[in-house]
Design brief:
- The protein is an all-alpha fold and 263 residues long.
- The protein is built from twelve helices and no strands.
- Helix 2 runs antiparallel to helix 3 and helix 7 packs across helix 8.
Length: 263
Amino acid sequence: MKKKSLFVSVVAIFTSLNVVLDSFVGMPQLVDGVWYSWIFMIEPLNGIVLGPYAGFLSTLIGVMIGHFIFFRGIQEFLFTLGAPVGAMVSGLLFEGRWKTVFVYYVVLFAAYFLTPIAWQLPIWGMWNTYCAYGALCIIALILTKKRLGKPEARKLSYALPTSAFIGLEADILLRIFLFIPCRTYQFIYGFNVEAVRFIWVAGAVITPIQVAISVLVALTLGIPLIKVLNKTRLFRQVHPLSHSRSSARAKPFKEIMRMLKGE
């Protein structure tokens, strides 16, 4: 009962932080951007600390309330769904569940490149999402080829920023899916190809800066926070895979638990 109350309290704290960070104007944008608030600062930590599903719910509640406080237009309630999805992807990858994340990336990339207007936009404009996909492929190769029981196969200092980076880019990828393949650039905003092309070029500069800031925050705050939660055994409750004996998906996450105990 005490553990459940503690878990609810931690979720409530993160939800409150999400509301606060989403209620203030973020970094200046050259044109229409991805994040207009500061929600990106703790988005990946929501999924990594709370777990993929509680992180999704906490982020979703936070951005919905935050969007009412700092109103950015009705259409932004649709695009902000990328934030809870990004939190969930970070949580899934942190637990070593890379297959779901891999399918997500492949499907959304396919949807984008099968859309005719995509070939009229600078292909390098999404360079950060390509890097995230490349990192995901490397992770998949490591987790399938290496023995997960070896200490060097899984390090918290590598797993946390990598999970944060890929989760943030998954957020961006969903927003791109809504904007291009779903054609909201035309139906909602009324943009022509030239306008979208300009947005692509500007976004290739601003968005990676925001991602870098968020990854740095995740690395700085995430490790000590996870260590504290692990001492209270709350981390095992948040991530059921940490004490699963039968599931193969538990092995990557168990390596993190071993390293925390050894430190």
